[in-house]
Specification:
Four copies of one chain form a homotetramer. Chain A is of the alpha/beta class and about 350 residues long. Chain A folds into two domains: about 200 residues, Alpha-Beta Complex (Quinone Oxidoreductase, Chain A, domain 1); about 130 residues, 3-Layer(aba) Sandwich (Rossmann fold). Chain A has twelve helices and 18 strands. In chain A, helix 5 crosses helix 6 and helix 5 packs across helix 11. Chains A and D meet through strand 14, strand 15, helix 10 and strand 16 of A and strand 12, strand 13, helix 10 and strand 14 of D. Strand 15 of chain A pairs antiparallel with strand 13 of chain D, so a sheet runs across the interface. Chains A, B, C, D: It comes from Sphingomonas dokdonensis. Chains A, B, C, D: This is Alcohol dehydrogenase. Chains A, B, C, D: Pfam families: ADH_N, ADH_zinc_N.
């Protein structure tokens, strides 16, 4: 089959690889209809991946059609339109049985497209382990592109919003306005935020956030502007949607007394200089973590069905899978929000 | 001073009565600028009041200017624009000290305008006991009319919304579209409701709710319509904003499995026929109670300041206090939403 | 196989019936090691069952050993010691996939032993539908008898405790001291209750509750005693563990301002006379519903493993299954707490 | 009057100073009956105080009798036995009016005994600003020594327990077994913890914790021991009760996936090396902050009255105030848990 594969830093190639096949009774084989590039795929692209493997298929956001199921699969059958959770659980431990993939006790598999251990879904087809838990039939009223956003980006954004202890009427900041940050702006308003400061270096992204009702702010001016605008109270909740040390540090400067900073971006710093004195004096709650995708579907599916969240509008580019190398380059140059690719 | 006074069923008269004066070190005397008629004032108007007294001043929703303070008052001074909480606490028990007037251990005073014990505020002036707790300087950015809505109607509406366990994306019903019900529609959306069914017999009121984004439904069709529209799931939250047996009963038919019915209307039925079998089978939470006004100011003031809630738009009539008798009659004929009166 | 079967009011007989067999790929066949009689089985015994069927196997509390599995079963295999959830979900809808059997969208099967549709487990063997969801391997450190209490009685008790909004230090009442009520006493203390009033007509049951640290109270004296003991505040939480109109009514008299009444007992009254006036004046939360057994295992298993809850101590009788008719009679005469039966 | 005063590092002297007097209508003058030394007083003792002042009275934990009240004081009168909150609010801002001194908008006064701005209470008398908010009549059933523990140490401990997201049955660690840590051990059990690992270098302190039901662990062995004992899951909640970098670091190693670390100790590190990579991978919640004493009285008073928490048992030394210099030295040598002093 055709797929995008990793061969080294900035070397992702479209080419032929072994067909995806079932390996277990509980597996599901999905013919990919659309797949997308996640911000964290750029870590791999930059050569900061999680494995020394070469030649594996990349990508972990995809929707498609079931073409084959293991005999132990209960909830899916051939022909079903499905969305595939980026987070992969074993499907058989107590955590997975409660729909909390992030509490999976055997989460060796982890995620697609990080190594040869679990091939990625930027491909014509992908094997989904424990299909009953790790994929879901796309519900009525959800388009393919909405479903694609539900495989990773929207749940990650929403988890961070839910982790931010947003109170009705609150002043909230979102730091970083990629697709996840922009969806967080939407999410903060859905949770009752009274004012959302949308912070990014790129004016065009701030303009999109302003179209959602937020107040766009340049990072360099954020502390002073928000201090003034909140009369010194600062924000009661901050959603950090980048994962860089600088943006986490900024988030910790924007939060007011007894407030919460909720981080969603991948950060691999082992000794982040944390302002403990300030945290103690102001009474901080700090949260970070990865997203248990299926857990959030329950809440998000109705919100997308009813038009409260419109994740599809952050798709800026649609390309054939064969142009995947270019797609990565576009995203890397920050010329795109969300790039969707389609196998021909 | 001039005031509206109760002399019997449908007999509320404008006339002269004794001036309001301080009685305690902690009292505050307020010259009333605007006052409003609450739905529960109609109970008194209909002769179903809480006292046999005659001639007392009625009304419990008012804003105005402080003209005198007892020497033990800490937070207010002459000239302050204030809003007066309809709920009155003693100001000195642990409940009041925590801002939870509804947990006041000595709540004999209860509310203005129910009897001669605490004169009402549909008058040129009103004595506010324990002014530090029972009144608040009107915050910057809040108009007099907004503040008037904050004295009772909006907090009552919001309490019921907060009691309704609204989940993001949820289908919610509001039963009864007086000003409190209409504000509840706004409040449900602010809490993340995905769809709000707005139920009232009066088409004009449903039309206002539709203008807020709700789906207007006639009470007679509500069960069938909502069953169809939710594919049998019914509503996960219902706000009951009338207090009649029929509307509580309807609310209990609209709630789905593991849902919540939150009542705010005054109901005095001692043996309400409660569908216990259905409640057990579906897993019901049922809540009712009165509103601790100052407790909710913390959350509501920023929401009104930021324009998330616009309570002033439900004021349909503005009249001089001298036309108070007519104002009650208009409201009684359901020709008005909120009636505001102004002493000349 | 041998089983207890229902033939009419007070006519439960031990005898031979068709062997339990697998009917679906996801079924599990369990050889029953121990089974127990639930208070709700007495409804059937009294002829107030949920079906006109005759001759079906009764009972819904059992533990045993897996002897056969359908080919789509993922988490269990022959030889596994298992506990069987009294609540039965389809195992394939979103609710079941989240471990919330009570939100199962297809819960036709409902429960074992209510009719011929799903044979009961007071038998030598029982077919468990969707075994992955509806049964669980008994965790290390849990005895068979503890596991048996985890199939229904303990989760039901715990759900009601969790629904009761118990605050640390609170005064709480438990109405009804069968095994579920006694476990609720334990549960209330585990949740931080400061005082637990344990209410039952039977002095021996009150004595057991007193051994757990509660204050035993006769129902006839409960209102006066608790008013005195709480200085008029009454209880902030009440757990109702019977399901009769009289005990629900009593519970509603024991709750104080802004308190919660949590009911767990089966009640089939269609027009229960609910004290709405009092509920409104005091600010009541009322909850009732059935128990989603597997959902609570996550929390309860560690509590039993660590000895915080000791459900096995409420087993008062152990009999061979062949004496099942007598076992029902003993329980009906209130001579027993929990009766456990063992197929020979 | 006689008092303990600060004159430099390790130089606290008992001597005569100006009498405490009322300065404001809302002040209350309290004759001190008992006062105690807090762990944070040792910061001052070590010369790491918050001011360059010399000669000011130290201490912020005291109970006594009201001897004079400003004319605007509502809730206290001469002769009342009172406990004095260590946290001081202005008493007139919205935060203070809601009983949330930690949200006081004007918290210049901060705390007693940190500088000459607000004289400490290790003295024969102390001026309490805004007495209605910052002191409380000692409730019936609370001894003087219990009340003394309620002025700071117990609420601080309890706040940290409540911030730790303790789930029923959970495995929890408490790091540091001074009086606050030992009370945290009690508090964790009151909140339903299934196992509490009590960690301190001092074997005697571990032995006290074991007497409360905890498992004593030496800090050097804590990571390995808890990993083994929890089968790799580690703790879902950790309460850090020291404030040192090393103990915060240890706490962050003891927490398991999706767990919470709650810190209560004063920490003044500006660039604490925070393990962000680990926090992200495991899904951490981290909380720290100071305690709003009166806010917690509502919950703690019934717990102490009912004997759920017994804070008085951590008082190890009782000395006359005149021996205050020696009292500090004893505490500094870690020979004491809580030292109580009494003016003669």
């Amino acid at each position: 089959m055709k797929a995008l594969r990793y061969f080294g830093a900035r070397d992702i190639q479209y080419g032929t690889t072994d067909d995806a096949v079932l390996q277990d009774d509980r597996d599901v084989l999905v013919r990919v209809k659309h797949c997308a590039i996640c911000g964290s795929d750029l870590h791999i692209y930059h050569g900061h991946g999680f494995s020394e493997d070469r030649g594996f298929c990349v990508g972990h956001e995809a929707v498609g059609e079931v073409v084959e199921t293991g005999r132990a699969v209960r909830t899916l059958k051939s022909g079903d339109r499905v969305m595939i959770s980026a987070a992969v659980g074993c499907g058989a431990c107590p955590g997975c049985l409660m729909g909390r993939v992030h509490e999976c006790e055997n989460n060796g598999s982890g995620c697609y497209g990080l190594s040869a251990a679990l091939q990625g879904s930027q491909a014509e087809a992908v094997r989904v382990p424990a299909g009953d838990v790790n994929a879901r039939r796309i519900p009525e009223g959800i388009s393919d592109e909405q479903a694609l956003m539900l495989t990773d980006a929207l749940p990650t954004s929403w988890m961070a919003v839910r982790n931010a202890d947003i109170k009705p009427g609150a002043s909230v900041a979102v730091v970083g306005l990629g697709p996840i940050g922009l969806m967080a702006v939407e999410g903060c308003f859905a949770m009752g935020a009274g004012r959302v400061y949308a912070i990014d270096l790129v004016p065009e992204r701030r303009a999109i956030a302003e179209g959602l009702g937020a107040v766009g702010v340049d990072p360099g001016e954020a502390v002073a502007f928000i201090r003034e605008d909140t009369k010194g109270r600062m924000c009661s909740s901050v959603v950090e949607a980048v994962g860089a040390d600088a943006t986490i540090d900024l988030s910790l400067r924007l939060v007011g007394k007894w407030g919460t900073v909720s981080c969603l971006g991948v950060n691999q710093t082992r000794r982040f200089p944390f302002p403990m004195e300030r945290a103690f004096a102001s009474g901080l709650t700090f949260r970070t973590g990865t997203c248990s995708v299926p857990h959030w579907w329950q809440e998000l599916i109705p919100m997308v069905q009813k038009g409260q969240l419109k994740p599809e509008r952050y798709i800026s580019h649609r390309l054939p899978l064969s142009q995947g190398a270019e797609a990565y380059a576009i995203l890397d140059r920050r010329e795109a929000l969300k790039v969707v690719m389609t196998p021909e």
